[in-house]
């Protein structure tokens, strides 16, 4: 298919994350080929950095938990000071136990170290987005990370969120959807975010002994948000049955690390089946019996029972329909063309959820290449595309963290399991635009861009309007010209 003058701009600003200097000319020869070449079996590119994997992070997390437990124990053992009747309670000073204080400080240090590592992961991810030649693959990976999201709003999941993207999302985004969703649901970040690690079958060996309860969070979000959706016709009973099938999905404990050291721990270890990326299945926590989810019965089978139910949900026609429409809405328009959503759904169904085929169908669709921008950028998109236009990248965590917080999209912290919203109504309010203007003004004042006319042309290509071109050319200063460019309608939209 012959390319139109706007196709390179559409490819880089809609399918990708924005154009870097010189990129528009390189992509113009074959915009569709540029995107297709990024669909690779190994998945999306990984952020650069010497980051720990999940087993190592589990060790660090256990150290943090151990410090917290020891501090709690030390507080219980610290003698209580009786307050004399004549002394106001506020004036009573309890003695400081040196051991308890040392443990408190150690716990705070461990938590701070994990938080700093997570922030560095986010910076590396933003730097990748600002510099990569594979803008489509990066946007595709970010879509799936948001569609099956975990949030740093909870420290337990925040500790593993970088590993989650690197291990569960990026390697699978061009494979089968059922493999992607299974890797995501079994990752410690998800298990901790949705409290699955604490769920126990009431009639299981451990559940009966501990009087532990069933937690339905993961099962509910699996069905409502990650697969079939609320319109698929499932019932509360289906959610409960799926939650029972998922009992036993958990993470290891610090005690299990040295299980062979003692006979009792060896017996405990026999009940634990390890899996990838720190996942474990606890047979003694799994609810016994067959389960029926959305009309299909799954015989008793331990770990395999929950996996089979999840794979069937991933293959369900309602999943193909819902996620195909969500893809069309993310990449093309808030209210996407029905024909595009239907085409993606057909390819999804015919390929058995092969995401590489769905991505190819998106790139091939004529609706994808309409010249009018149909989406407003999220704050993260705006920051990344601005850096790309300037040929720069974020250098430090504090200003990046502050800018995203100011604009309403704090790093790694969507407000709910639904992920970040994705429509103009969510991001284009008056206050939000003021925050964007403030950041654009500050960024423009510090930018190194000697030829602002060339920067505008390189960033927007054929999408650069005469009005914006003239505004940039007539600006009284370089910072003013860049601010006008970054706040222009065609730069704010994609």
Write up what this structure looks like.
- With 494 residues, the chain is mainly α.
- 57% of the residues lie in helices and 3% in strands.
- Strands 1-3-2 form a three-stranded antiparallel β-sheet. Strands 4-5 form a two-stranded antiparallel ribbon.
- Helix 4 (54-77) runs antiparallel to helix 5, helix 13 (236-246) packs across helix 16 (303-315) and helix 17 (317-331) crosses helix 18 (338-350).
- The chain is globular and about 75 Å long.
- Residues 81-91 and 260-264 have low confidence and may be disordered.
List the helices and strands and how they pair.
Elements: H1 7-15, H2 23-28, H3 31-36, H4 54-77, H5 98-131, H6 135-147, H7 155-158, H8 161-169, H9 177-185, H10 188-193, H11 205-210, H12 217-226, H13 236-246, E1 249-250, H14 254-257, H15 263-270, E2 272-274, E3 280-282, E4 291-293, E5 296-298, H16 303-315, H17 317-331, H18 338-350, H19 355-364, H20 379-390, H21 397-406, H22 424-427, H23 430-446, H24 452-460, H25 466-474, H26 478-486, H27 489-492
Antiparallel strand pairs: 1-3, 2-3, 4-5
Helix pairs in contact: 4-5, 5-20, 8-9, 9-16, 12-13, 13-16, 17-18, 18-19, 23-26, 24-26, 25-26
Structural class: mainly alpha
Percent helix: 55-70%
**Mean pLDDT score:** 91
The Cα radius of gyration reads: 26 Å
Instruction: Give the tally of β-strands.
Output: 5
Sheet-strand content, in percent, reads under 5%
How far apart, in Å, are the first and last alpha carbons? 22 Å
Strand order of the largest sheet: 1-3-2
Low-confidence stretches: 81-91, 260-264
Question: Given the C-alpha coordinates, what overall shape results?
Answer: globular
Largest sheet: 3 strands, antiparallel
Separate helix tally: 27
């Amino acid at each position: 298919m012959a390319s139109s003058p706007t196709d390179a701009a559409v490819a880089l600003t809609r399918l990708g994350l924005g154009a870097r200097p010189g990129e528009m000319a390189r992509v113009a020869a074959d915009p569709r080929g540029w995107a297709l070449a990024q669909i690779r079996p190994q998945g999306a590119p990984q952020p650069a950095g010497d980051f720990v994997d999940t087993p190592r992070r589990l060790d660090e997390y256990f150290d943090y938990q151990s410090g917290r437990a020891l501090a709690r124990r030390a507080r219980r053992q610290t003698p209580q000071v009786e307050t004399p009747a004549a002394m106001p309670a506020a004036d009573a000073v309890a003695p400081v136990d040196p051991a308890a204080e040392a443990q408190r400080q150690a716990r705070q240090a461990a938590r701070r170290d994990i938080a700093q590592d997570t922030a560095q992961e986010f910076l590396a991810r933003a730097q990748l987005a600002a510099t990569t030649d594979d803008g489509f693959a990066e946007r595709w990976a970010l879509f799936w990370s948001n569609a099956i999201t975990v949030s740093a709003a909870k420290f337990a999941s925040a500790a593993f969120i970088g590993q989650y993207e690197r291990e569960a999302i990026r390697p699978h985004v061009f494979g089968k959807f059922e493999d992607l969703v299974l890797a995501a649901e079994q990752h410690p970040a998800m298990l901790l975010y949705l409290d699955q690690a604490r769920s126990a079958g009431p009639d299981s060996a451990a559940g009966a002994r501990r009087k532990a309860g069933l937690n339905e969070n993961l099962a509910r979000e699996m069905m409502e948000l990650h697969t079939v959706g609320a319109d698929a016709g499932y019932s509360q009973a289906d959610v409960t049955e799926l939650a029972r099938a998922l009992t036993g999905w958990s993470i290891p404990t610090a005690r299990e690390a040295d299980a062979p050291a003692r006979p009792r721990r060896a017996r405990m270890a026999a009940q634990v089946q390890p899996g990838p990326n720190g996942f474990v299945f606890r047979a003694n926590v799994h609810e016994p019996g067959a389960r029926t989810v959305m009309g299909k019965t799954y015989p008793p089978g331990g770990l395999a029972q929950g996996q089979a139910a999840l794979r069937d949900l991933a293959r369900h026609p309602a999943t193909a329909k819902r996620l195909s429409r969500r893809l069309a809405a993310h990449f093309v328009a808030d209210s996407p063309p029905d024909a595009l959503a239907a085409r993606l759904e057909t390819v999804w169904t015919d390929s058995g959820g092969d995401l590489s085929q769905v991505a190819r169908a998106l790139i091939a669709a004529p609706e994808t290449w309409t010249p009018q921008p149909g989406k407003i950028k999220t704050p993260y998109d705006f920051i990344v595309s601005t850096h790309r236009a300037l040929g720069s990248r974020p250098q430090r965590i504090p200003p990046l963290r502050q800018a995203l917080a100011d604009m309403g999209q704090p790093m790694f912290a969507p407000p709910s399991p639904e992920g970040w919203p994705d429509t103009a109504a969510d991001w284009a309010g008056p206050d939000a635009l003021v925050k964007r203007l403030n950041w654009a003004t500050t960024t423009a004042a510090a930018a190194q861009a000697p030829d602002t006319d060339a920067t505008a042309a390189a960033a927007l290509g054929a999408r650069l309007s005469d009005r914006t071109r003239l505004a940039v050319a007539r600006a009284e200063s370089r910072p003013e010209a860049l601010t006008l460019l970054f706040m222009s309608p065609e730069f704010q939209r994609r």
